[in-house]
User: What shape does this take?
Amino acid sequence: MKFYIVDAFTQEKFGGNPAGVVILPEGADFPSDELMVKTAAELRYSETAFIKKLENGEFNIRYFTPAAEVDLCGHATIASFKALLYAGIIEDNATYINHTLSGDLEIVVNNGFVLMDMAKPVRIGSIVNDQALEELYTIMGLDYADQKARGLEMNPQMISTGLPDIMMPVVSLADLEAIAPNFPALSDLSKRYEVVGVHAFTLDGDDATCHVRNFAPLYDIDEEAATGTSNGALTYYGYLNGFVKDGDDCKFIQGEKMQRPSQILSNIKDEKIKVGGDAVILAEGEIHIA
Assistant: This one.
């Protein structure tokens, strides 16, 4: 079966967030879950998407990290539809349906740019207890008391637009840069809060809505260069906390610390969130797993 390596949320090779994309042959069913996990581990990217073509412009995509299946992955979805376009399986300037474990999502491909629906946004909870706040920021390598003294006003919240993450504000770009998580402790914390990981962000800087970093060691992803679902969740967090308004277009810059700068765009209208970006095909070939 055909596979691709695609850099998502970028227009430059070796930028953005790479994903594996495996397109199943016409009429073929998914390999076993064990085989898909092993394939994702062999490809070594944070997520690998397996695409089953259905009828009438519809697809069923499943997403695997090197450790487990996840319900949805934004950058792997962008990569998937870019690969489908490159392979001639879909046409440009058209709309498609992606059936995922997070629901049926509309995908618009417009001049090579992929815009995808997020799942219905959900605010799961907030972290407001001082002890819990200190624990979170300490695990992330920061001092919560220092952050608060320097003007941090918003509290972290668990938000999902397909996958749950902790949205964690920090005061400055320098603070964002300084984050150095205790990864085993962050994995344990993620289990306890039942989230994928932590999406840290700052409003500092005038070139984007937020600069962000994302950490998900529970799923063998210490840091990720671009995360569509997490930035969809951050769009909703911004809406709930007043720095994003209904109808706004947002821009998130991620991956700078990893030297893989990414640009993720989003829009919120009537609490419906879309996330989009471009992508670049880096490699293609045949993978012999079935």
Notes: The CA atoms of residues 125 and 158 lie 5 Å apart.
